[in-house]
Amino acid sequence: MSKIGGDQGLSRRALLRWSAVAASAVSGWTAGRTDAPLPVVASFSILGDWVRRVGGERVRVETLVGPESDAHVFQPSPADVRRVAAARLVLLNGWGLEGWMERLLRNAAYRGTVVRVTEGMEPLRAARHDQHAHGHHSHGDVDPHVWQDVVRARHAVLRIAQALCAVDAAGCEGYRARAEAYAQQLEALDQEIRAAWATIAPQQRKVVTSHDALGYYARAYGVQIWPVQGLSTDSQPSAAAVARLVRLVRREQVRAIFVERLADTRLVEQIAREAGVRPSTVPLYVDTLSGPEGPAPDYVALMRHNTRAMVEAIRAAVR
Questions:
Q1: Which CATH number fits the domain 6-190, given the four candidates 3.40.50.980, 3.40.50.1260, 3.30.1300.10, 3.40.50.1980?
Q2: Per-residue pLDDT tens for 9-49?
Q3: At CB < 8 A and 24+ separation, what contacts does 40-43 make?
Q4: Where are the beta strands (DSSP E) in the chain?
Q5: What is the pTM of this model?
Q6: Residues 6 or more apart from 316 whose CB is under 8 A from it?
Q7: What is the CATH number of domain 193-318?
Q8: Could you read off the pLDDT of 166-206 as tens digits, one per residue?
Q9: CA 51 – CA 61 distance, rounded (Å)
Q10: Which of 203, 213, 189 is CA-nearest to residue 253?
């Protein structure tokens, strides 16, 4: 994909042309018309799923980082600039997940509404090991992976409803009703995950994963999770950090080791091999949904898939 910014920046002529496209796309809304779907951009696939649940047929959702794609290393294209320019509302996670977003908004000359669904939440801070990782993309010391705690996901969904109401008051009743209905589904999902982990003794809830994206999950559901990489999939642990993790796996007798979808398998396989553990053949979906035929085509399916995979791996290891 083409990189935006620097020597690859957009020409003034292109910006004017795409601004005209945006004006045409949203003119019905600024004039008070509601016969066309509200154009909304969501930054990545999980957030896009939430917006569709809340917006229903009243919104047209464009997702920048689609299923089976990594928001950590995403590079926007000119087509993405056009999508943002034509949007009435842009929704993003925030906390550094979309490090490319500010530049994208500038290049799109965006003048609409931007909402971060993490607003009002208290973030987790990066684990100490992440300070020794190397990579081009960094979240600083804030963990942005809030969707791994279903209670926080529920907060984000209600925030989405508020954002949609702010730009489309005529559709607010429907947005609120759909958000409340989906929030009830998420409440049931949260209890389902807790019930699944209740079948595993607390001292056996030990998992190694590819990167540090499950901190909120670990805290919410009482699981010890050790990552190979830091908060970003672009980070790389030092040789000393890998050696420490091998020793930890042996000492803690960790038997559930997972490679995440989109992650490089080599480091996880190296650690499993040196620790004498066979890694799971079932990938976790952490930062992205799967395609429609995959095991995680929506957020609820993603959380169920990951929970089932981890619980079943531990059960099999302790029999």
A1: 3.40.50.1980
A2: 334 444 444 444 444 444 445 445 457 999 999 999 999 99
A3: 40/87, 40/88, 40/89, 40/90, 40/91, 40/164, 41/83, 41/84, 41/87, 41/89, 41/90, 41/91, 42/91, 42/92, 43/71, 43/90, 43/91, 43/92, 43/93, 43/97, 43/98, 43/101
A4: 38-44, 59-65, 89-92, 113-116, 124-125, 142-143, 206-209, 224-227, 256-257
A5: 0.84
A6: none
A7: 3.40.50.1980
A8: 999 999 999 999 999 999 999 999 999 999 999 999 999 99
A9: 7
A10: 203
How far apart CA 150 and CA 195 sit, in angstroms, is: 14
Provide the CA 292 distance to its chain's centre, in angstroms.
Answer: 17
- Is the sign of the CA dihedral 83, 88, 93, 99 positive or negative? positive
Q: What is the pLDDT of residues 277-306, one digit of tens each?
A: 988 989 999 999 999 999 999 999 999 999
CA-to-CA distance for 107 and 105, rounded, in angstroms?
6
Position 72, amino acid: H
- How many whole angstroms separate alpha carbon 42 and alpha carbon 55? 12
Count how many residues are written for the chain. Answer: 319
Residue 21, both tokens: 């496209």
Q: Write down the pLDDT at residue 280.
A: 92
